[in-house]
Specification:
By secondary structure, this protein is of the alpha/beta class. The chain folds into 2 domains: 328 residues, Metal-dependent hydrolases (TIM Barrel); 96 residues, Diaminopimelate Epimerase, Chain A, domain 1 (Roll). The protein contains 16 helices and 21 strands. The strands form 3 sheets. Strands 1, 2, 3, 4, 5, 19, 20 and 21 form an 8-stranded mixed β-sheet that branches.
């Protein structure tokens, strides 16, 4: 018989009404094995009978229990690998970037390459020339500086020499800037990143490198209160690493659903066929804890890199930035995937890209497919309304709205578009499912600071800042926690077995030390994480 456990004297998030902005707390939860048996009051007759029968009772001492967090948009292997890279997040100038890299290179003579992360383009005046990174390392090793948003990598001359050039000629000057002789100058953006830099570096990681990275990633995620994740931009490299981890350990520490990356170059239909094949082997019905649920398309870039597709030119530019997929390409891919019962996820940040993504999902005519748009950085009022009407999930990352990283954002898009930035409340008001993710490692994976961004629209990294990002789009605590749990579960068709605290559902939950106010979220902490009815994390006293 499965063990029974009773949690009492707490605040258990029993239900929340997203539209009414209300939250209902119970004071007791009963587990039986890996399932929730009862949510209610300690005085309920069934609960009293269970306690009297000798069940283990845990006094929560007024702590809060919520469903386990589900990161609706992350990159687990990249996150684990990023933990081993030099972090440049706090480097606010070119001089600081250079000095930090130079010191790191001297301290690590054993490394074959210097791998960095967290470069914020405005910190170097948006310049990224190979010569700017030369002469920082006495050994003249290749240096790779990955942007904070993961959409580009800045390299030195030594790296240019070792990187393959075959695909560079197929990409425009926006993705691989070249000099007058046609030679790359040091920046690889969008397709230059996904088709050249990533594949090359992935080959350099050993299998043990990847397994060690996943161990670190899962450990960090469990400690943060996650019981699930949706891994975006999946490919053979990442999938094989996750599959091997699962084979070696019998299971994954958290449930993982994946969206297979479809690139705009090459055989589009063939790429979708790969995702269809993987879904047949690994699907939510046969392996809900580890499955391929859909595809991922990257429609545009990012505002900081002036590669997000807007309806107006960027300052200093005379022409529009076009989406990475043409309308015809996107419609073909989306329709083929949707007809195969795959979920479609489309990265769209600029308002022009958002409209194209919505149009493409609409033409596929599968309103129950729970298709989704990632990021939605700038969305027109009309398109915000269309999301809910078409059953499209707004998969957003509040951490990207942190005013500390939006130094040039308003200047680049102008006041009119700025008013439509990160329009989460509009999405909810028009009945779209909102799912929260972090996009780690482009940002911290921690859910509580993410919720702070969503509810206060203030900076979680620099809380002393007074600036707020479009404060009229702030969410309530109920709405924010719903998006980080139930909304994320719904977005991957997992809402029938996890994401909320209800009798019969899987016992995936988090015990929080929390005052349950937006302002307290940065001081709140995860005390325990439970997955499948088992405690998998306990905070140190």
């Amino acid at each position: 018989m499965a063990a029974t456990r009773v949690f009492v004297n707490g605040r258990i998030l029993a239900s929340s009404d997203v539209q009414k902005e209300t939250t209902n707390f119970a004071d007791c939860m009963v587990l039986e094995g890996d399932k929730i048996l009862h949510i209610g009051s300690k005085s309920d007759e069934p609960v009293q009978e269970i306690i009297q029968s000798g069940a283990e009772v845990t006094d929560l001492e007024n702590r809060i229990i919520i469903p386990g967090f589900i990161d609706a948009h992350t990159h687990l292997l990249f996150f684990g690998l990023a933990l081993r890279k030099l972090d440049l997040t706090n480097c606010s100038s070119l001089e600081l970037v250079k000095s930090v890299i130079s010191r790191y290179a001297r301290e690590h003579p054993e490394m074959t390459r210097i791998l960095c992360r967290g470069w914020h383009q405005p910190s170097t005046g948006r310049l990224a020339l190979a010569t700017m990174l030369d002469n920082l390392d006495p050994q003249q090793r290749p240096i790779y500086v990955e942007a904070l948003d993961l959409h580009s990598t800045w390299v030195n001359t030594a790296a240019l020499k070792e990187l393959p050039r075959d695909h560079a000629k197929d990409l425009d000057n926006r993705q691989v800037p070249c000099d007058k002789n046609g030679n790359p100058t040091g920046l690889f953006a969008e397709g230059g990143q996904t088709d050249i830099v990533w594949p090359y570096l992935n080959e350099k990681y050993t299998e043990e490198d990847k397994q060690a990275a996943l161990r670190k990633a899962f450990k960090a995620y469990i400690a943060a209160g996650y019981t699930g994740a949706i891994d975006m931009a999946m490919d053979d490299n990442c999938w094989d690493a996750l599959r091997l981890y699962r084979e070696k350990n019998g299971t994954l520490p958290i449930h993982v659903a994946a969206h297979w990356l479809v690139r705009p170059a090459g055989d589009l239909a063939g790429q979708v066929d790969v995702a269809i094949s993987q879904n047949k082997k690994w699907n939510p019905s046969s392996t809900p804890d580890f499955c391929v649920v859909g595809i991922k398309l990257i429609c545009d870039g990012v505002v900081d890199g002036c590669t997000a597709a807007l309806t107006q030119p960027y300052p200093g530019h005379t022409s529009l930035i076009e989406p990475l997929f043409t309308k015809e390409q996107m419609d073909l891919v989306v329709k083929k995937a949707a007809q195969a019962d795959l979920q479609v996820a489309i990265h769209a940040i600029g308002n022009a890209a958002v409209k194209q993504a919505i149009d493409s999902i609409e033409q596929a005519n599968t309103p129950t497919g729970r298709h989704r748009i990632e990021h939605l950085g700038i969305t027109s009022e009309e398109d915000a309304k269309r999301l809910g009407a078409l059953g499209i999930t707004a998969s957003v990352q509040p951490v990207h709205s942190d005013p500390a990283i939006l130094v040039d954002y308003q200047k680049l898009i102008g006041p009119h578009l700025w008013d439509r930035a990160f329009a989460y409340k509009d999405f909810l008001d028009h009945h779209a499912c909102v799912a929260f993710g972090t996009d780690a490692p482009t940002a911290r994976h921690l859910p509580l600071p993410n919720l702070y961004n969503a509810t206060t629209r203030k900076s979680a990294t620099q809380p002393q800042m007074t600036e707020r990002t479009t404060p009229h789009q702030a969410l309530t605590m109920s709405q924010a926690f719903h998006a980080a749990t139930a909304g994320a579960a719904y977005s991957r068709f997992a809402d029938t077995w996890t994401g909320t605290l209800k009798a019969g559902l899987q016992a995936d939950f988090v015990v929080l030390d929390s005052k349950w106010t937006p302002e307290s979220l940065l001081d709140d902490s995860v005390a325990e994480t439970w997955s499948n009815g088992k405690k998998v994390y306990q905070a140190a006293d």
